[in-house]
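wait is this the right file?? whatever heres the structure
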């Protein structure tokens, strides 16, 4: 296959180029005129490395009625995502043993439209399982410092991590951390609440700062790579910068919803916006954008965490509803809409959503770039076109999303995985 565009994103920037693919790999990136007669010419559409989403809750097996591999990976393909990393919780069994990982793989086999990798879980008492999970092929580990919301994936204390960190250091894989200190979280009001600001107040930004401070303390003794997931407040980034200045391998992500929404705009009872940590105020959203543009935040991942509509709560109680936002299909467009409004070029999205996540997952030698030797995982999209999100047209299992009715820029035209088309308009 020969493919060409006037806007191909490579390490040299955005330029006209022809990409030659053989047997699922890129063999050359050359000038516009080098393509053969049967070239696929996409004109001015951007050709970018397929997105690598390192934070996806598929939930199969065990809770396939929430989301499964077939629906999740179709949504990924429609959003230009060519590789996902599946989180270890919400499935039953949770991916905390090598046997559970094999159950995940059995469920996925024959049901995926994009490439799938896996994350192992760190829970109280399973330090002895971590080497087996590494040997079985997980790309990273994940733990919660506050309750996860499901009984089969317990949250860890500092004492639990003191047992796990020496093992993790020897294994060399990153530990992804839901970083909220439970001691900083407030109890739900009696009878719950429909007020979004009550939910926001119950999970203050101090919870992130306290948790990250504890992680840095552990890294000083056992400098294993740690990755803070779904950062909601830029107020913790001074701690992160100081740790990095001292050579500690600490990375951070944020999510499209923290870059898109603001607490002041969320209606009471609108539990489709509920997530943890919560979506914060406009000043926090703007500070996250500033940190992302300055390189203080390494990457953007979806934290796609859907559930059946009934679990979002028909009564609008933020404390009773499931916390999670379905956005796997919309991440590229949501982030581009914010970037475009700030005068940011498409090449920055390639770093935030393709190259940096590939590095985190240890896939950087074959994914996240358009270059010879890399997998032909590609997305073609129109950055100048917009659309209004129609939840009924999403490929997620359940059409519940806070993006419904919102205009977004960036229309995905085609997605290729290993040179094979997996989504076409």
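ok assuming it is, sequence goes like this
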């Amino acid at each position: 296959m020969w493919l060409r565009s006037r806007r191909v994103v490579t390490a040299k920037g955005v330029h006209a180029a022809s990409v030659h693919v053989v047997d699922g790999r890129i063999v050359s990136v050359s000038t516009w005129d080098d393509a053969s007669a049967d070239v696929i010419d996409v004109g001015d559409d951007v050709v970018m490395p397929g997105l690598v989403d390192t934070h996806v809750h598929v939930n199969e097996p065990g809770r396939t009625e929430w989301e499964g591999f077939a629906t999740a990976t179709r949504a990924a393909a429609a959003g230009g995502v060519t590789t996902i990393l599946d989180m270890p919780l919400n499935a039953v069994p949770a991916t905390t043993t090598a046997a559970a990982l094999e159950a995940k793989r059995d469920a996925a086999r024959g049901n995926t439209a994009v490439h799938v990798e896996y994350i192992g879980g760190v829970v109280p008492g399973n330090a002895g399982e971590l080497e087996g999970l590494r040997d079985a092929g997980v790309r990273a580990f994940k733990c919660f410092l506050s309750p996860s919301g499901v009984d089969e994936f317990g949250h860890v204390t500092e004492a639990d991590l003191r047992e796990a960190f020496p093992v993790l250091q020897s294994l060399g894989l990153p530990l992804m951390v839901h970083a909220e200190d439970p001691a900083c979280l407030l109890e739900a009001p009696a009878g719950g609440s429909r007020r979004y600001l009550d939910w926001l107040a119950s999970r203050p930004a101090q919870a992130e700062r306290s948790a990250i401070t504890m992680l840095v303390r552990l890294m000083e003794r056992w400098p294993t790579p740690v990755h803070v997931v779904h950062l909601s407040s830029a107020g913790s980034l001074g701690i992160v910068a100081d740790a990095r200045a001292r050579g500690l391998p600490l990375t951070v992500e944020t999510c499209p919803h923290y870059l898109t929404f603001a607490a002041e705009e969320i209606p009471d009872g609108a539990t489709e916006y509920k997530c943890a940590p919560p979506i914060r105020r406009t000043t926090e959203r703007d500070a996250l954008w500033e940190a992302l543009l300055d390189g203080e935040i390494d990457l953007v991942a979806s934290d796609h965490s859907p559930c059946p509509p009934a679990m979002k709560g028909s009564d609008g109680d933020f404390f009773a509803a499931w916390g999670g936002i379905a956005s796997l299909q919309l991440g590229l467009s949501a982030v581009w809409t914010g970037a475009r409004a700030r005068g940011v070029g498409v090449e920055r999205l390639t770093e935030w959503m393709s190259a940096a996540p590939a590095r985190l997952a240890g896939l950087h030698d074959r994914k996240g770039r358009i270059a010879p030797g890399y997998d032909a995982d590609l997305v073609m999209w129109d950055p100048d076109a917009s659309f209004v999100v129609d939840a009924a047209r999403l490929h997620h299992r359940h059409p519940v999303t806070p993006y419904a009715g919102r205009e977004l820029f960036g229309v995905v035209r085609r997605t290729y995985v290993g040179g094979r088309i997996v989504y076409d308009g």
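The chain has a mean pLDDT of 96. so i think its the right one actually
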